[in-house]
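Sample entry follows:

_____
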Amino acid sequence: MTPALEEAVRLLRLAHRDRSTLVLLARIPEAPMASLGFHAQQAVEKALKAVSVSRGIETRRTHDLAALAEMLLDVVGVTPFMLDELRPLNPFAVEYRYDDEFESSLSRDEVTELVERVLAWAESCVNSTAAPRA
C-alpha cells in the first residue's frame, strides 16, 4: 500500500469515528444540534480529504466542504451529493461551536443521511484506487 493510500484509509477511519459519534448523539433528543453538526462536518471533511489524498490531489487547510468537493469534481466526475448540500455543514466546523443560539437549516435525519452518503461514496472512491489494475 502506498503512503498516500495509507493516509486515505486513515482519514476514512477517522471519518467513521466521527460518524459513529454523530449516530450516537442523534439518538439523544437533548443532544445539541451544534454537537451533531460538528461531528457531521468533521466526518464529511475527512472523507473528502481521503478521496483527495487517494487521488494525489493536494488539499489546503480548510473546513470549506464545498471547496474540497469542488476540487474533486474534475477528477472523480459525478458525486452523490450537490455542493450546495455540503455548505450548511460548514459553520459547524468553528462558528456554531462557539454560538449558543443558532438555527440549522438541516434536520438531524438530513445531517445523518448526508454523512452516510458521502462516506459510502468516499469509501468506494478510495477502494477503487486501491484495487489492482488489470
